[in-house]
From TrEMBL:
Residues 6-56 form the DUF397 domain. This is DUF397 domain-containing protein. It comes from the Bacteria. It comes from Streptomyces prunicolor. InterPro entries: DUF397.
Length: 59
């Protein structure tokens, strides 16, 4: 199975408080805490990811 290739979020802080996202495996969006790269990974479908990110821009 291919490995996830994680990238830091564009809103990362200087205190290293951020999430990392991987989109390199079709059908799966993977999210992890950048402070714990060997910790748990949350896996979402692209549809769920789209719905989640849409809520981030609402007041």
């Amino acid at each position: 199975m291919p490995e996830f290739v994680f990238m830091k979020a564009s809103y990362s802080t200087l205190d290293h408080e951020c999430v990392e996202v991987a989109r390199n495996i079709p059908g799966t969006i993977a999210i992890r805490d950048s402070k714990s790269p060997t910790g748990p990974i949350l896996r979402l479908t692209p549809t769920t990811w789209t719905k989640f990110t849409a809520t981030l821009n609402t007041p």
